[in-house]
Design a protein that fits this description.
By secondary structure, this protein is an alpha/beta fold. The protein is built from seven helices and 16 strands.
């Protein structure tokens, strides 16, 4: 009898062990079958991501080690050429900013929607390409507001940026309630557009294109804003070569807003922007002695004076290139100075010791 009880007890223990092992195996298999992120962490499908990086384009922060630039295209959309440019961008995992003309929106609705779906930025180039400093206040408001309202109504997108036709904003920038985006590299592509009856061989056309591409590759640097026009076959042909060439050179092609956001620089209404000033980490090591320094930026743009010794500090004012500043103190990578009544911090990467005389 005792042997029978002992036998049943052993059998019961073995069954319990088998049950526990089976349950653990199921849990392990379920865990292995769950989706994981790039770090191998398990994420929950249909719910919040557990320990994962954000994945929406609006929320992704580009790592500072990447060299960011912004391709910008004016005067479109023109479906035949703009779509070719979009295809080139898509093939290279890139985006651009398109400054659209309002009276072209009706004929380019599908093209604009495709650009938006790809993550490109749609910006304002006025309704009928009129110079903003050559028209009345009411006409200027119409030229700007009509485009913003149409884009919002048709596509549900808030337009953030404006480019003045011909870059003509002088004297009226304070009247414009949007950031004004200029450029640091002008391809002058419009000068080389195909014209009926123009005496130019295919070899000459290709040489002109290659000359522009070579100039861009020579002058480009992180933070650059490159100007082109998406209404020309010449520009579409050039973009199909230039876009992969820039990517192969290590540049990440983002929108203007994404670039400024990634480099922690604000875009303010009524202010003019030519490029995004990027301070190389390698140039921001040791504090510098007090004294006079000259602002020397890469592309000739201004240098931001910030409220704190950090890229996250709010921008107090933009200091023009070649301005002489009196540095009173310095910490690693940042110098304290006063400009036009504002006291704050600037990156030492863009300061050179001032030589009297």
């Amino acid at each position: 009898m005792q042997k029978r009880k002992l036998f049943l007890t052993i059998i019961s223990l073995l069954l319990c062990v088998l049950f526990v092992f089976s349950a653990c195996s199921v849990d392990k298999n379920e865990e292995e079958n769950k989706p994981t992120n790039s770090q191998g962490q398990v994420v929950e499908v249909g719910g919040e991501t557990a320990g994962d990086e954000t994945t929406t384009k609006a929320e992704v922060k580009t790592p500072s080690k990447e060299k960011l630039i912004a391709l910008t295209y004016d005067d479109g959309p023109n479906p035949s050429t703009t779509n070719r440019i979009l295809t080139a961008l898509e093939k290279n995992n890139s985006v651009a900013t398109f400054f659209v003309v309002g009276n072209r929106i009706d004929s380019g609705t599908d093209t604009i929607q495709r650009a938006i779906d790809m993550g490109c930025e749609i910006a304002n180039h006025t309704y009928s390409h009129k110079y903003l400093n050559k028209i009345s206040d009411s006409e200027r408001n119409y030229q700007i507001d009509t485009v913003n309202e149409t884009i919002k109504t048709r596509f549900g997108v808030d337009v953030k940026l404006l480019r003045a036709p011909g870059g003509n904003f002088k004297g009226v920038e304070d009247e414009i309630d949007m950031p004004l985006i200029q450029w640091s590299i002008d391809t002058n592509d419009w000068r080389h557009k195909d014209v009926s009856g123009k005496t130019r061989t295919e070899e000459q056309r290709q040489k002109e294109m290659n000359d522009i591409i070579d100039a861009v590759m020579r002058d480009v640097d992180d933070g650059a804003i490159i100007l082109m026009h998406d209404i020309y076959d010449f520009t579409a042909d050039m973009s199909e070569i230039l876009i992969p060439k820039l990517v192969a050179a290590g540049y990440k092609l983002v929108t203007v807003s994404e670039m400024y956001d990634a480099y922690c620089q604000e875009l303010n209404a009524g202010e003019v922007y030519y490029n995004c000033v990027v301070a190389p980490v390698s140039d921001m090591q040791e504090p510098i002695p007090a004294g006079e320094y000259v602002v020397t930026t890469k592309n000739g743009g201004g240098l931001n004076l910030r409220s704190e010794a950090s890229k996250s500090g709010s921008i107090l004012i933009e200091i023009p290139n070649q301005t002489v500043l009196n540095v009173t103190e310095s910490v690693e990578g940042w110098a304290k100075a006063t400009y036009n009544g504002h006291t704050g911090w600037v990156s030492t990467a863009y300061l050179k010791k001032h030589s009297a005389g």
